[in-house]
Design goal:
about 15% strand, seven-stranded parallel sheet, alpha/beta, six-stranded parallel sheet
């Protein structure tokens, strides 16, 4: 099968971009031909370069929704953009188009372009919260525009987990098929973990008997980095051997760094900028601590599980993402009673085995790719049935 993945091109470093790369690898491993379309905007250069080893990369001019002053309102009437995208995709001649949307309102002109193509399409939406829920500007109008576009989109919608599918159906205000396919991450060569652990802990100047908590994410309000500092200080008070590492950049970086310096927290809290290879740093850690306000289905948690890291997640995330309600994952509680679970090396080793088991059973790339191939085949079969029905109707007229 020939599959063209399409990015709404908001940037190269978010979870949605990781998803594109991981899905591409999984589909290629199953023997399918995969291509990627991204905007020619320089902010997509990094993703384009990374994907080039997986399949062909096609690029053409496109302005992401969030670079328009009017946001999704600007996509209501830009029919020329949709027409030009349709031409580019038709020239590649895929069997199916797979659109990757970060949220409800981005890439609505891309949906319009996909509906104009001669081949069917599938659309993955990572964040299904409405503009009103996210307290965005002009939320009712922006939600109306997104709802109108999604209601009129003829392709198959996909999201993860089931709670996201439920909220998407509620947002659409009509009965609509929404498939649920859990995200996934690549398996890790477990033999490399001891080497990574030793190397990276030396670079961080962290002793082997210290317990390293790590979090990976953009330095933005959604990820709760300032709350991470508060929690880290409280954990350190209760667990003197604790050390902390945040990996990522964003608009809160300066505020975060300044707070750490002014409060002398740099003795036990460190931050690294964005890392192209985050797995070795995860392998050097003991606990993954994720306190984000909301997520789609965070790849950083999946990657942490892939190296056997026990994960501590906020109650809100566990409510939103039922697949994470499993052994190997601990619910954060500000009474900090869970610290007793992770104090001993033996307990951490047992939690690590449970984390690895959870990853292998639920979040492998092979499972992800196989489930999407099933969806592609269903969509293609539906298209062919409709074509045959029309042909039969014409022949009987």
């Amino acid at each position: 099968m020939k599959i063209l993945l399409v990015s709404t091109s908001s940037g190269s470093r978010g979870g949605g971009e990781l998803w594109l790369k991981y899905l591409g690898i999984g589909l290629k491993n199953l023997g399918h031909e995969v291509g990627l379309w991204v905007s020619s905007d320089p902010n997509m250069d990094e993703l384009a370069a990374q994907f080039s080893s997986i399949g062909e990369v096609i690029r053409s001019p496109y302005i992401n929704t969030y670079k328009h002053r009017g946001r999704s309102l600007s996509t209501l009437f830009n029919f020329s953009t949709s027409k030009s995208l349709k031409t580019v995709w038709e020239n590649w001649q895929p069997d199916i188009l797979h659109i990757n949307k970060q949220n409800l309102e981005d890439g609505l002109d891309i949906l319009r372009a996909a509906d104009g193509c001669s081949f069917p399409s599938v659309c993955m939406i990572h964040i299904t919260q409405s503009a009103q829920t996210l307290k965005a500007a002009m939320p009712q109008l922006r939600d109306w525009v997104a709802r109108f576009a999604l209601q009129n989109y003829s392709g198959q919608l996909v999201t993860a987990p089931q709670t996201r599918a439920d909220s998407l159906k509620e947002f659409l205000q009509r009965d609509r098929s929404v498939k649920v396919i859990l995200n996934a991450a690549p398996s890790i060569n477990q033999n490399l973990i001891p080497q990574w652990r030793t190397q990276k802990r030396i670079e961080l100047n962290i002793n082997d008997d210290e317990i390293l908590f790590v979090s990976v994410g953009r330095m933005v309000a959604q990820k709760n980095p300032m709350y991470f500092l508060k929690v880290a200080s409280e954990i350190k008070h209760k667990l003197p051997s604790a050390q902390f590492l945040w990996i990522g950049d964003g608009n809160l970086s300066n505020e975060w760094d300044k707070y750490v310096q002014e409060n002398s927290l740099d003795i036990f809290i460190k931050r690294l900028p964005w890392q192209h290879e985050v797995i070795p740093w995860l392998a050097a850690s003991d606990i993954y601590l994720h306190l984000a306000e909301f997520e789609g289905m965070p790849f950083s948690v999946l990657e942490a599980l892939s190296v056997g890291l026990p994960c501590i997640l906020s109650p809100k995330l566990l409510d939103d993402i039922p697949p994470f309600q499993a052994e190997g994952i601990i619910c954060f509680d500000d009474t900090y009673e869970w610290i007793n679970k992770i104090k001993s090396q033996d307990n951490r080793n047992q939690l690590s085995k449970l984390a690895t088991h959870l990853f292998n059973n639920s979040f492998s790339l092979q499972r992800l790719a196989k489930e999407y191939i099933e969806v592609y085949q269903q969509v293609l079969q539906t298209k062919y049935r409709l074509i045959n029905k029309k042909l039969n109707h014409l022949s009987n007229s």
